């Protein structure tokens, strides 16, 4: 699949509306089934990765993930480069609404230049693997002082066929209110864009900050793989 063309064909006006209203947006069929399968098959190719994390050792959950090394695989690099410019205006809109001075540049290259100037040099794209009983505890992927407030995950297996359970969970923490859980089950090849840390939400007295965390519920059968793409680099 031609990634730049595929990204252009999606309804970014609707995605922007969804992100502003809910903190997440789902874009269907961003990768083909064959592209998803190839990424899963490459999981055992250690030359592609800079680091492996066994989640139980750090109380992150139960499963394993691997961070890709630079240079990234072309499909990952193209996704990162072509989606970022669609999201930067949304992120800047949130900063404006919350009266924050932070401004995000127009291109991924400019964002990474800022990361590198602040000592954040390591790529953060990763692939996650869970077996039966696996899960991911609620967390945020910040990696340093410089972070972009949105990230994305692409689902590489088919729920109901390759695995059961394993729902993607977002927790929305509004000020002076109980937390809200959002449970999502995108299809194989779908891209989920969601809030890394916080978003701007409009209330009765103007805009306020809504903090969000994400995780994965327990896999009850089969195995589950996802591709995670974070736009900022890590220390």
UniProtKB/TrEMBL annotation:
InterPro entries: DUF2086
SUPFAM superfamilies, sorted: Clavaminate synthase-like
Pfam families to which the protein is assigned, alphabetical: Oxygenase-NA
Tree of life domain: Bacteria
Protein name: Prolyl 4-hydroxylase alpha subunit domain-containing protein
Organism: Mucilaginibacter mallensis
Lineage: Bacteria, Pseudomonadati, Bacteroidota, Sphingobacteriia, Sphingobacteriales
């Amino acid at each position: 699949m031609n990634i730049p063309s595929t990204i252009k064909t999606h309804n970014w006006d609707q995605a922007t509306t969804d992100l502003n209203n809910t903190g997440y947006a789902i874009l269907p069929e961003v990768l083909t089934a064959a592209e998803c399968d190839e990424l899963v098959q490459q999981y055992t190719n250690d030359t592609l990765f800079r680091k492996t994390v066994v989640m139980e050792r750090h109380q992150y959950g139960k499963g394993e993930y691997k961070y890709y090394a630079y240079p990234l695989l072309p499909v990952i690099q193209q996704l990162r480069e072509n989606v970022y410019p669609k999201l930067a205006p949304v992120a800047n809109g949130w900063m404006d609404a919350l009266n924050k001075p932070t401004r995000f540049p127009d291109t991924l290259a400019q964002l990474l230049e800022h990361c590198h100037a602040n000592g954040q040099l390591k790529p953060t794209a990763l692939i996650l693997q869970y077996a039966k009983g696996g899960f991911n505890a609620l967390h945020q992927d910040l990696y340093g002082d410089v972070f972009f407030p949105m990230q994305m995950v692409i689902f590489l297996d088919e729920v109901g066929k390759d695995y059961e359970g394993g729902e993607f969970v977002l927790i929305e923490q509004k000020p002076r209110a109980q937390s809200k859980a959002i449970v999502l089950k995108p299809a194989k090849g779908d891209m989920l864009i969601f809030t890394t840390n916080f978003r701007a939400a409009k209330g009765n007295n103007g805009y306020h900050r809504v903090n969000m965390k994400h995780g994965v519920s327990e896999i009850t059968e089969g195995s589950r793989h996802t591709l995670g793409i974070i736009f900022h680099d890590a220390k």
